[in-house]
Amino acid sequence: MELLQLEHFGQTLRLQASVAGWQQLYWGDQIVSQLSATENKFAKSTHHFEFSQAVKQTASIEAPQITKCRLEIVLNWQPFAMKYQLFVDDSVVQSGQKDSKDIEQQVPIKTLKVEKKTSTVGLLSLLFKLFKSAKIIKVVLAGASLAAYSWFFSFQFALALIACLVFHEYGHIRAMRYFSMQTKGIYLIPFVGGLALTDQKINTRWQDVVISIMGPTFGLILSCACLLGYWFTGSPFLAGLAVFNALLNLFNLLPILPLDGGHILKSISFSMNSKIGLVACVLGAALGVFVSYRLGLALLGFLLLIGSLEIFFEWRTRFQSPLLPLDKYAQLVSAVWYLLTVAGLIAIIFYFASSGDQLLSLPLKILGS
After folding, report:
1. Are residues 346 and 249 in the same domain?
2. How far apart are CA 325 and CA 278, in angstroms?
3. Which of 8, 11, 99, 172 is the most buried if burial means most Cβ atoms within 10 Å?
4. 362 and 219, same structural domain?
5. What is the pLDDT of residues 277-289, one digit of tens each?
6. Which element (helix H / strand E) includes 340?
7. Taking the model in full, what pTM does it have?
8. Can you point out the beta strands (E) in 224-271?
9. Gap between the Cα atoms of 195 and 235, Å rounded
10. How far is CA 341 from CA 216, 241, 247, 352, 353, in A?
């Protein structure tokens, strides 16, 4: 990922680095210094480079003048902190420091090339990005979703389902705005769900976690609000909305990309730069599968297993990511936040299943199938 951008002598000096340890220093578009993972074992690194300028000696004669430069950095990844000094001919011309907040707000000039696999969801997302400037598309898609859900269920249920989807996506929108990202609104897609879009790229795993988990968190809040409304009014409509919205958001938290849960658990596991961290992730996933089967949630346990295996096999590619990893405190907060949200949604599903109502018991039967 790109950690540093400095302007000097009319050129941009850019430093790219990865958790694996390698660093590349660019002077404009040209690499002027490079440290491999084996060379960069310590927090302090020094890049040496030089450039020449034509200097007039007489009115008609120019001679090249060599300028020697040195960039010294002290870099710590977890928690992220960086100090730097730029020397020109042994004189400090620029210095400063950065933390994770600076990286979040940074707009990379040139990002690392990461191989991306083509997927149906990715192509669909790209298609909607081409049309996201036209507000009429939102109206057309919302109408199509309402018509589709009304055809299969009922008009009232379709309205309630769309309200749940919009509230969920609004959680993503709020998180994006928290990180000062410009949003393009919410797009409803029949039988797929919704998309909250932005033009800007995330720079850190923490941004990825917060943006991803805020959708299900808003979903949990909505289900709790419907539950309270049911306690006060006894309305079966509110009961159904609470339990089916809980099921919808619980599936979103499965560790399968591109679902929210896939982004969250991938960010947590990919931030662990040790085999101990990987073992902890594997044991946590195994515990989740075991608990799911013990609670009779066979489908949930199976999908959890599949998603965990997908993340496990991709774990070695974590160093290729341009995203700043989570520090240990953020890893813990993310994991607890995720588990509490999952537990809250499952608790609501079990609560209504215990009522004996066949319709309200349907989400639990789906998870146990």
Report:
1. yes
2. 14
3. 172
4. yes
5. 667 667 766 777 7
6. helix 328-353
7. 0.73
8. none
9. 30
10. 7, 18, 12, 17, 19
Q: Are residues 226 and 313 in the same domain?
A: yes
Q: Pick the last residue of a domain from 200, 232, 267.
A: 200
Residues 163 and 263 in one domain: no
- Amino acid, res. 171: G
CB atoms within 10 A of CB 182: 9
Amino acid identity, position 99:
D
Contact present, 173 and 217 (Cβ < 8 Å): no
The verdict on 143 and 86 lying in the same domain is: no
Long-range contacts at 335-339 (CB < 8 A, ≥ 24 apart) = 335/268, 335/284, 337/209, 337/213, 337/217, 338/213, 338/253, 338/261, 338/264, 338/265, 338/268
Identify whether residues 262 and 290 lie together within a single domain.
yes
Domain end call among 185, 200, 215 = 200
Contact (Cβ atoms closer than 8 angstroms) between residue 341 and residue 217? yes
Structure tokens at 215: 């959708």
Cis peptide bond N-terminal to 236, omega within 30: no
**Is the bond preceding 79 in cis, omega lying within 30 degrees of 0?**
yes
Give the DSSP H/E element, type plus range, for residue 46: strand 44-56
Q: pLDDT under 70 in the chain at which residues?
A: 8-10, 19-21, 37-42, 53-63, 106-154, 189-194, 273-278, 280-281, 284-285, 292, 295, 297, 299-301, 303, 307-308, 310-320, 369
